[in-house]
Amino acid sequence: MPVPSPYSTKLAAIPVREAVVEVLGSTTRYWEYGPTDRPVDLVLIHGFRGDHHGLEPIVSNLSGLRIVSPDLPGYGASTPLPTTHTIASYGRWLLAFVDALGLAGTPVLGHSFGSIVVSHAVAAGLAPRQVVLLNPIAADATSGPDKVMVPIVKLYFRIGRLLPLRAADFWLGIPLATRIMSVKLARTPDRTLRCWIHEEHGRYFSSFSDPTTLSEGYEASVSMNVIAAADSLTMPTLLVVGALDNIAPLEGQRHLAELLPDGELVILEGVGHLIHYEKPAEAAAAIRRFLGAHA
Length: 295
Hints:
Layout: H1 8-12, E1 16-23, E2 26-33, E3 42-45, H2 56-60, E4 67-70, H3 87-100, E5 108-111, H4 113-123, E6 131-134, H5 149-162, H6 165-172, H7 175-185, H8 191-204, H9 211-223, E7 237-242, H10 250-259, E8 263-268, H11 275-278, H12 280-293
Parallel strand pairs: 3-4, 3-5, 5-6, 6-7, 7-8
Antiparallel strand pairs: 1-2, 2-4
């Protein structure tokens, strides 16, 4: 039987509305949580290969705030962009999405790959009052502890692009590959929570639109990092990081924090790259305090 979500009760108490908007050729689906009688407090940008569901544990701990959370183009229920999916094109999409919804100045949160998208959108002209980066990618993927995996994963996605569509969908959605990734990232000793995390990855990590978009997304994710856009992050910026993160190691996070003129570093112990699943209450508390302090 499926493992029940540990955050479903809190999430069920938060009103949610689903909507769609055309953005640079992508039919972008987004979800709005919380009350409607106040301005939007926060825009959420999820990580690579996931969709908006991954950040719902954070949302469940931010009751009372009004939050907008889209699926990135080519993932979840959003259609891909008509151009190559690069960090620059995702950045342009985020600029246009915020503009289309009239959310200029609204604080923006990016998780993992989303942290790269957000930071480079800021470099391209996005001007949120505050930025929150959750598990930010603060170093070159080819220099980190998992650097030997980068060419292997690139090959995995490139093979997917060469296969016929049905075979590619099977190859890129192999449950074993998703489970290996999930086991590698999960740090919690709670067996029930670990099982739920694995099920979440199994449910939502194959909701990409096509093999080309997925491969382009991975190329984008390892081609850039937040450090390259750090000069543009002049607004109050919160970094929420995991002490055990092997995707975005702590040394790089400390370096990123030093580069920010108005940055704050919050380190959560006992967690790695899955803060949004394993310690969403602690992350949400830091986010709520940060937004309030810089309102």
